[in-house]
Structures are given as structure tokens and as C-alpha cells.
Amino acid sequence: MPTNGLHQVLKIQFGLVNDADRYLTAESFGFKVNASAPSLKRKQTWVLEPDPGQGAAVLLRSRHLGRYLSAQEDGRVACEAERPGPDCRFLVLPQADGRWALQSEPHGRFFGGTEDRLSCFATAISPAELWTVHLAIHPQAHLLSVSRRRYVHLSPQEDEMAADSDTPWGVGALVTLTFQDGQYCLRACDGRYLRSDGRLVGGPEPHARYTLGVKAGKLTFKDRDGRYLAPGGPAGTLRAGRSTRPGKDELFDLEESHPQVVLVAANHRYVSVRQGVNVSANQDEELHHETFLMQIDQETKKCTFYSSTRGYWTLVNHGGIHATATQVSANTMFEVEWRGRRVALKASNGRYVCMKKNGQLAATSDFVGEDEEFTLKLINRPILVLRGLDGFICHRRGSNQLDTNRSVYEVFHLSFSDGAYQIRGRGGGFWNTGSHGSVCSDGERAEDFLFEFRERGRLAIRAGSGKYLRGGASGLLRADADTPAGVALWEY
């Protein structure tokens, strides 16, 4: 399987919350740090980096400043080091309740405090030296077992999650990390939670919560009994084993989850590579050969379509479209035109992709008609988490409206019908638009929304009024944006 950016390990970004429920913050003035912020923004986001010397220590880099947290021998802390030195090395000590203690590796003292009175001088761990870890990355990703080099996915037949897949293909490979009382749960694509004995359960019960740990830049998941999740047996079933110390079997990477889509042509058949390298609309059901990974180039906004069994779609002689390319090039890039419930694709020769009479696709049309339009369906987000420039979308407390600036996220359920999506929240209520562009979450009837995948990892959501959903100063979700950019784009 060619790489070309298909498998990208996510940098571990997070916020650290102290015992007073305030976030560790890096300030530009004097490169000082404090714990005064009530929510997670850019200044409160830290990037975890492994020790370059391959030791057990980690480095904490401020996403805001691009500099490293350091602790001197006298306990003074700052975030001014442009390059990591010995004073920047910390040991992460996960506690039973899910919180972390951070210990200066060279000096042996613990980091903690309140407001602007932070230091790294404590000789023992007290509540003031404990930090709750709040992941700042998008919580929906692929989970890779480091030892087996296999991806975790839902196995409905065995009713388990297993690390036995060579590629993170299909909806079953989506894993959602949910934050619950200072710990994390692993949620399968069907909404169930992984319990430490390997069973899937309906809610985030205590045995389905894990303490995040870090070793050699990789993630570990420790259950309430102090045992670590690991793939076991020939099937790679994910459960807590006997180990109370993480080795290679207990290490995991999180990888970016790109959209996987199916396309339906005007003949109501799925676009497929089942019968060979020709990309053709000739199948009546959506299976592995009908699923394509869609990647958007950040500069050109053009996209590629990748088949795990064949390769990238590419333009060949006489306008034909074959799934044979192993590398991204100009001929594998397609411009997407969003046409309401349908899309049109323009190839590198400047012509639109159409369906020929035999079902094969070719870029030979100068205009868009029925044969040049396709229905594009996102298949690997049955549950959806949305994050904008200011934070995650969540229900507003005591209201039917939706906030767009929350540091905690909420999971919404997604359904699809004839080129449009329906979004359902907790309690089963549907998203709907009201007067003056307001968006509510308690609709009895589903309203259709159009998804437009505009940038890598970001989509625009268009309401029935033709306006795009956006965040803004009010913190409320509204459907009144004219263009799909800025506050009208959502990480998904």
C-alpha cells in the first residue's frame, strides 16, 4: 500500500487541568506559565514529544509559542526554550484516577501549583501536583497496535474489537476516544464501549474507562485494576492483559482518519473496481471494492480517490479513469464541484468525468449533465464529532440550541438519504434550522443538510436555506454564512 500521506500518526496534543479546574497556559509575555484559564484554547494546548535520546522522559511543547516547558533546579518554570535541553525533560506518572503527575527527570521534583504560582519543587505528589489530561486532537481516529502493526476495528461477528487489519478500511476501523470523568473510553463505530475484559457494552461503565499513559511517544491505556490494554491471541482481540507495566504489546498509535466514500452514478449503481482496473459504475451493493479513500490537497483543494485493492484513480489515454497509480501526481487529482445533492468531478485534462454506456468512467465531457453527476456518501462517520475554530459543537445547557466553543465534545449520530445527511443528538432529537438562522437540536422530523468536503479534514455544512452553518462571537451555531470558509468549516 503506497504511503503518500495515507498513514499519518497524530501528534499527541492536549490540555492539562489542575486540581482547581484551570488549564496550564503559556503566555507570550515573558514566556511565563500559569494555570488560570477556564477552557482549552490554543494557549492551553501542549504537544507531547518523545525524548530524542530514546529515554523514558517526554518533552512538552507549547502549541502557541512553539517553545518547550522547562524546570530549573530551584523549581522555577518557564516556556522559553526554543530547543529542548536537559531541564525540559519530564517523566509522566499516570495515577489510578486517570490524572498525571509530571516529574522533572534531572531534578526529581514534581510540577504543580495554582494560577501564577506554579513551580516544580515538590518532593511528593499532592493534589496540587496532579493534572487531568484533556486531549486536544480530534477524537475520531484509527488505532494502530505498535507490536502487531495491525489496525483495531470492530468485528461484529465476534462482538469484539481486534487488532487484525492490515489497513484501516471501512466504517469498522473508526475509533472514538470519549472523555469521561478524567479518563478515556474507546468507542466502536456502532457506539458501544470497549470494556477491559474485551466485551462491548452500551455505556461508559467504570470497567470501560482507561487512564492514558505515554511511553516512547506512544499511547497506553490502563484499566481500573492497573492492567494495560493489548491485542491478545491469534485474532488480536483487544482486552486488558496481565501486564501491569507497558511493554511493546501495550503501545498504540493514533492515525488520522480520512473520509472514506462511495459514489453512485446516474444508473443508480455503485462506482467500483471489482472487475478490474477500470473504474466503472456497475455494482448493486457497496462493499470493499466500492469504497474509496478521499484525500484533499491543502494547497489546490483538489482530491484523490484511493482503492485499497487497486491504487489511486488516474487519468489515462483517451480520458479513461483507471485505479492503477501508486503515487500521487497531477493525473490523480480531481476537482470536486458541489452541486447540491450531487457532485461533479473534473480531471486534470479539464474535462468532467462521465459514465459511459457500458458503465465505465471517462473524463470526456465539457459540460455537466445527468451522466456527469454522482451521489457521494461518507461511510466512516456513523457517529460524528465536529470542531470549529473556537471549539467543539455541544448542546447548550438547559436549551435546545448548540454551542460552538466548548472544550468538551459531544457525539452526534449521522444518517444519509439521497445525497443529504441527517444529524441526531442525544435524546434522539434532529438538528433543524429555525427563524433567523438559528439551529436547534430537538426536531421531531429530520432536516436534510449537505456536506461539502472543502479542505483536508474539514467540511462545510449547508442547510436547506442554502446558508452554511457557522460559529461566531455569540458561541451559538447558526445557519447564516454565505461562503464555506473560516468559521463555516468544521473538523470532523
Automatic annotation (TrEMBL):
Subcellular location: Cell projection, Stereocilium; Cytoplasm, Cytoskeleton
Family the UniProt entry places it in: Belongs to the fascin family.
This protein's record includes keyword Cytoplasm: yes
Organism field: Neomonachus schauinslandi
Any one GO molecular-function label of the UniProt entry: protein-macromolecule adaptor activity
Organism placement in taxonomy: Eukaryota, Metazoa, Chordata, Craniata, Vertebrata
Matching Gene3D superfamilies: 2.80.10.50
Highest taxon above the source species: Eukaryota
Gene Ontology BP terms: actin filament bundle assembly; anatomical structure morphogenesis; cell migration; establishment or maintenance of cell polarity
Sorted UniProt keywords: Actin-binding, Cell projection, Cytoplasm, Cytoskeleton
Protein name: Fascin
PANTHER family reported in the protein's UniProt record: FASCIN, FASCIN-2
Cytoplasm recorded as keyword: yes
